[in-house]
Amino acid sequence: MSFFTAANVVVGSGGGTSPASGSVQQWANNLSFSDGQAVVFNGSMYVAIGSPPIGLIPPIEVAAPQQPGSPKWMLAARGRTPAAPWDDTATYYQDQVVRYMGGTYVLDKATVAAGTRPSADPAWTPLSEVLTDVESQKVTTGNLGNFGFGITAAIFQNTDEIARVRSHRVRVASLNVTPAGVLYEMFFPKPIASLTPPMFTVNAEDQDAWILGLAVQPIYNATQCVGYRCFTTLGFMNPGTYEFSVTVKQPLA
User: Fold this and answer.
1) What is the pTM of this model?
2) Could you say which of 2.40.170, 2.60.120, 1.10.10, 2.60.40 is the CATH number of the domain covering 141-249?
3) 32-38 long-range contacts, Cβ below 8 Å, gap at least 24?
4) Is the pLDDT of residue 18 over 50?
């Protein structure tokens, strides 16, 4: 199955018999194609020029013809394949679409070596950024614990967005004058398995929270990040209520 659009594509009459000239066929490495034969390879349409050797891969020939200046395949219309899970043992070719760590990517190069991660090579163009499985997990006040002395904290929602690991809002209340230190710890519903720490961002939702110098640090269990610790870095925390949001981005590489 493939998706493509084309306008005014002209194919030659050809003279071959395998496959039928003038028809659009799925390219295969064991078939011969005649002059003007249109084929689909990874969702894109290519037209044969002359008689391409059997097994000559269209996007590679378009990018670097075996005979300089005389390519045997011409790109007629760009398309793409349906998204499939990325396989680190597979060899991919231009216009293949994969799903990797929650994101969707299309290959914009003739080919890349097997094991070339979509998140680590510009040849892969991101089509969408979808929450990873860990980032999409819902969080509630029940995911918070180990509160500082005189501190209470809760996950709250004042928009239409559901609180998730990727983005959630926290309301912290202090009953006492509290020195700088830990306010609470957040424990993810699922751990992030990576030696690379997640990227954390803290945004104060009011002036009082801003002056606290809020920061977070990951909590690890072996090589898994199981949550984070939120703390203040500036002076004392006066009694009151403070609101801020925390964003957690899972590393993809």
Assistant:
1) 0.53
2) 2.60.40
3) 36/11, 36/12, 37/11, 37/12, 38/9, 38/11, 38/76
4) no
